[in-house]
Design a protein that fits this description.
InterPro entries: UPP_synth-like, UPP_synth-like_CS, UPP_synth-like_sf. GO terms for molecular function: ditrans,polycis-undecaprenyl-diphosphate synthase [(2E,6E)-farnesyl-diphosphate specific] activity; magnesium ion binding. This is Isoprenyl transferase. By secondary structure, the protein is α/β, with parallel strands linked by helices. It has two domains: about 180 residues, 3-Layer(aba) Sandwich (Undecaprenyl pyrophosphate synthetase), CATH 3.40.1180; about 35 residues, no CATH class. Helices cover about 45% and strands about 15% of the residues. It is built from eight helices and six strands. Strands 3-4-2-1-5-6 form a six-stranded parallel β-sheet, sandwiched between helices. β3, α4 and β4 form a beta-alpha-beta unit. α1 crosses α2 and α3 packs parallel to α4. The longest helix is centred in the first third of the chain and has 24 residues. About 30% of the residues are buried.
């Protein structure tokens, strides 16, 4: 099997990593940022074209206010410290998720990251921020309804391709592989439409313990699988 073109990761387990060490949850999130940096660097070296990271769910706002504040602070710190390095390494940053209602400073930082790196041609780093797949699909359907109502689209033209073209990931290939750390085995409202034929890798380590070796392990497992996309293999036909 060929190298995955697009890898998506649900970075899970920061809080449990901290709890196991008797540390505050903030320590887990800080350690998770270190893993994030290493993973981005490793993906770039492996020539993986697209890497999507589930950074902040639209459901995460329900967490304690102090934790949300800490997470926003880490996001700001990451962009301020790492954006120049990402740009220098030819990384193109894309943000997916709902932007309406975000604080002005957060939205400004996200848009700055996209604007600065839009001309880069290396790894496309997709950050899912304030992201929820059902919200994304709902927004896409609303656009379709508006296009049909205005006459820009006929009802018969409402196809899976038309929906895909209105998602936040319109010009991004569907993920070949989705990794989730911490041993949890669910998607948690992440890329539900795009994951139709993704290979899932559920890894037991907490995100702060995730290293490039884990990424290599996941890719090697991916390469041993046979993807059918709803069809059958030539070997199965022969049988």
């Amino acid at each position: 099997m060929s190298h995955p073109r697009h890898i998506a990761i649900i970075m899970d387990g920061n809080g449990r990593w901290a709890k196991a060490r008797g540390l505050p949850r903030t320590a887990g999130h800080k350690a998770g940022v270190d893993s994030l940096r290493e993973t981005i660097r490793a993906a770039g070296k492996m020539d993986i074209p697209f890497l999507t990271l589930f950074a902040f769910s639209s459901e995460n706002w329900s967490r304690p206010r102090s934790e949300v504040s800490d997470l926003m602070g880490l996001l700001k710190l990451f962009i301020r410290r790492d954006l120049a390095d990402l740009h220098r390494e030819n990384v193109r940053v894309r943000i997916i998720g709902e932007r309406e209602g975000l604080a002005k400073d957060i939205r400004g930082l996200l848009e700055e990251a996209e604007a600065l790196t839009k001309g880069n041609s290396g790894l496309t780093l997709v950050i899912a921020f304030n992201y929820g797949s059902r919200n994304e699909i709902t927004r896409a359907v609303q656009r379709l309804i508006a296009d049909v109502a205005s006459g820009a689209l006929n009802e018969g033209d409402v196809t899976p391709e038309a929906i895909s073209a209105r998602l936040d990931t319109a010009d991004i290939p569907d993920p070949d592989m989705i990794i989730r750390t911490s041993g949890e085995m669910r998607l948690s409202n992440f890329l539900l439409w795009q994951a139709a034929y993704s290979e899932f890798m559920f890894m037991p380590c907490y995100w702060p313990d995730f290293r490039p070796s884990h990424l290599i392990e996941a890719i090697e497992t991916f390469q041993m699988r046979e993807r059918r996309f709803g069809g059958v293999t030539a070997q199965e036909i022969a049988l």
